[in-house]
Amino acid sequence: MKLDPRQTPIVHLRAGGTSLIVDTTPGTASTDTASQPVILAWGPDLGDLSEPALQAIRTASTATVQAGELSDESRLGVIPLASSGWMGRPGLSGHRADGSGWSPRLVCTGADLEGSRVTYQLLDVQAGLDVELVLEVLPQGLVRARAELTNTAPAPYFLDELSVALPLPLTATEILDFAGRWGLERAPQRSTVEVGCHLRESRHGRPGFASPMAMFCGETGFSFERGRVWGLHVAHSGNGRTWVARTSTGRQVIGGGELLLPGEIALGTGDSYRTPWIYGQCTEGLDDAARQLYRWERTLPAHPDVERPVSLNVWEAVYFNHDLPTLTALAERAASIGVERFVLDDGWFKGRRNDRAGLGDWTVDADVWPGGLHPLVDRVRELGMEFGLWVEPEMINPDSDLARAHPEWIMRARDELPAEWRHQQVLNITIPAAWEYLHAAIGRLIDEYGIGYLKWDHNRDLIEAGDAGGRAVVHEQTLACYRLMDALRAEHPGLEIESCASGGGRIDLEMLTHVQRVWPSDCIDPHERQSIMRWTSQIAAPEYLGSHIASPRSHTTGRVSDLSFRAGTALWGHLGFEWDLLAASEEDLAQLRQWVTLFKAHRPNLFSGDIVRRDVADGSMWLHGVVAADRSSAMFQLATRERSPLSPRGMMPIPGLDPDRTYRLQAVLVGDGPDGLVAPPWAAEGIELPGSVLGQVGVHTPLLNPDQVLILTVRAV
Ligand code: DGJ
Fold first, then answer.
1. Which residues are marked as active site?
2. Cα 548 to ligand 1 centroid, rounded to whole Å
3. Could you say which of 66, 167, 330, 340 has the lowest number of CB atoms within 10 Å?
């Protein structure tokens, strides 16, 4: 429905329990004739509001102005601009060669309202800039925004940034975001909001290990369970920026956008740049925020089926040492414990005997695989498993036939190549011929071997990522990657793709619209993995999260863990193995069969239910659970990562259940169960209690040694 913003300046978008009120009323101020969209309210649903009520909200939110300040009220647009009196980070910055166009003033010339989505046409005639701004409240209550800038003037426009910002109340005083490194992704960090800007940037050409992932800002002490919290996520797999800023004028925003490199976006006449989607969430506690995202993810066309096949990835079992008899034996062992997908990792293609050579040459190495991959693939199929293959399409080793044939396809910003990283460089897939080469090469492999699954790796940052002329092309490279994934999936129905980037270096909400799995970390040590999974779960539903049972001694940390801790930790994502199962004992194999059976019995609920996370007692134990959508059942893990000065540790509420139903709570022991288990009477026998009692009073906390997991099931009786 077309709206005349002069007649209907205020729109109230409502969906999924969220309200977003947007105003384009021109200000009374001389500085504010621009009337670009301003958010008056964002938060829980405000109910049906009449036109006069919306006008009253506008009046109520008009700021006071006093001497010594800007003469008229500054207005914080969704794209913050100095022309509206905003002195903080601008949302649109750029210029023309003659220095003009650096301070746009956007006027709203039209709007289109469709349900809970409004599209604004914004114009700056003098600057020759047109912006289409979409604001939407999704059925799950998520808010999202996206802007597209078009240059309408004859001269080129050099765009530095186009981002959006959403207003926060001053009661949001604490920030949560994430740091990390290889093998330790998504390490949470908290800080206090002060006047100034908490800004996180990714210049890695991928979100990276230290990606803020999402930034949350909420009431002091907000937790999984409680505290109003606002979150923002830049859904983009290249460079990005996220920030929370408070000004001394009493304004606070949470903002984000793509980070553009100098000269990266030069818009000719009629050319456009479109931002990624920026997602906003306002919820009570972090669990609600995660649940809201899962509900949205589960509507995506590319979302995977709940029957996630149990996988075996051979990386930590054989690394680059590929030989048919060993891999065949591994496949047979895997099938014997219930594995459903066999994934051949790095090392299968031409010249790839180690990580120094071969990337780019996507044909099977004839020396190692004289019969091609057929003998292995055929055996895998005979055993009833699907076959998956590792690729790293966007990368190239200087020591490869491809690099020798096309040195001009390697990204660089100058004559010299960028710094090496794992002996590899980045293939410029914005070059149509390079993109087509990959498309054809990978497509041929999929066809020849009937590949159902690609593990798509990306093992370095993009440094000095320029094209043949040295112009930065990270933006285009990122879009070209999405196009390649989409084209391969469209041409090979049923193909699944896993996004891996030396572990969890490329996990974001846009990637989740193209792939079916992500690899959260190369660190499979369950002690570390507990935390990595806990926090990656904040944005990605568990069905996306690759979750493997590795060898007793972690290849990343050297820590040795019990099988029950490794398996009990892995159960909570898309289960797989990454272990030389040929070295596993008969007793281990028997227990692994039980874990696989448990996973298969519970995966439909695990991958459709609601997440619940809690700290238990003094926080030395973590409770993590999934409650079925209809709350008829649930499964929890109680994990200990540390010893505690408290023993015993008091009562443990079991959250998320229907208070009006009675449930049977029971511990599930696989093998001998977790080490050091001192089970209170309820755990040994099982117990029936109303959901209200389980949620409010709880049960006495079992004791476990550190680095152990106890699995609990709950079923309505
Ligand atoms: C990094 C990945 O995260 C690993 O799982 C493995 O696939 C290696 N790359 C292979 O080179």
1. 457, 522
2. 13
3. 66
